[in-house]
Amino acid sequence: DAKTTQPPSMDCAEGRAANLPCNHSTISGNEYVYWYRQIHSQGPQYIIHGLKNNETNEMASLIITEDRKSSTLILPHATLRDTAVYYCIVKIYNFNKFYFGSGTKLNVKP
Amino acid sequence: EAQVTQNPRYLITVTGKKLTVTCSQNMNHEYMSWYRQDPGLGLRQIYYSMNVEVTDKGDVPEGYKVSRKEKRNFPLILESPSPNQTSLYFCAIGGGNQPQHFGDGTRLSIL
């Protein structure tokens, strides 16, 4: 039911952009893409979400392909504090069920 | 800023002893949820609530109860805890057309 596929882990050098991919090939027209991250065992933290247009906020950018079957979360200048597990979730906008998959463990290295 | 307060943060207890984990919010959100997180299984939704007196099952509701008598609070009740309910629990507010904000978690150990 997770509906998304992410690589289990990625490395990124500090100060460089981190590009985290997510495959959601069965996404429906009314499902949004959400990204969260979890640092150690803290509560997951909301990052960004979008439907089909690219989105940017103070934390990250979200690039969604034209066919909406995949997306990429971009952290423009990764820091050591960005080391976390990143979750990509697809969800109907006004629906309350969230399915968290296994996520991607991002390791930011000095 | 959204604030979700869970209590207790840590609890060690024994099988069969009823316990309640409280969750309160300061944002007047209609939506609230409970999750459990286990190694290798990720976060799984237990129950959610869309408003006062409106609750529904998530993916793993067995062995849990919830209530939503007022908008501010959404307690998770384990009537007869068992060792397989040892886990890290998170309460979240928001949902629907809003992002969720999570509490700091409650680590339960049931012996």
**Backbone shape of chain A:** globular
**SS summary, helix count of chain B:** 0
Give the CA-based shape of chain B: globular
How do the helices and strands follow one another from N- to C-terminus of chain A?
EEEEEEEEE
What is the count of β-strands of chain B?
11
Query: What are the segments of chain A in which pLDDT stays under 50 over at least 5 consecutive residues?
Result: none
**Alpha-beta content class of chain A:** mainly beta
Helix count, DSSP H or I runs of 4 or more residues of chain A = 0
How can the largest sheet of chain A be summarized? Answer: 5 strands, mixed
Beta-strand proportion of chain A: over 45%
* Portion in strands of chain B: over 45%
Strand order of the largest sheet of chain A: 1-9-8-3-4
Relative helix content of chain B: under 10%
Helix content of chain A: under 10%
Q: CA-to-CA gap between the ends of chain A? A: 36 Å
Structural class of chain B: mainly beta
The termini of chain B sit apart by 37 Å
List keywords for this structure.
heterodimer; A: 110 residues; mainly beta; five-stranded mixed β-sheet; four-stranded antiparallel β-sheet; 9 strands; B: 111 residues; seven-stranded mixed β-sheet
Task: Walk me through this protein's architecture.
The complex is a heterodimer of chains A (110) and B (111). Chain A is mainly beta and 110 residues long. In chain A, 0% of the residues lie in helices and 47% in strands. Chain A has strands spanning 9-13, 18-23, 31-38, 45-50, 55-56, 61-64, 70-75, 84-92, 104-109. Chain A has a five-stranded mixed beta sheet, with no helix packed on it. A four-stranded antiparallel beta sheet of chain A has the order 2-7-6-5, with no helix packed on it. In chain B, 0% of the residues lie in helices and 50% in strands. Chain B has strands at 4-7, 10-13, 19-25, 32-38, 42-51, 54-57, 65-66, 76-78, 87-93, 101-102, 106-110. In chain B, a hairpin with a 2-residue loop joins strand 5 (42-51) and strand 6 (54-57). Chain B is globular, with a radius of gyration of 13 Å.
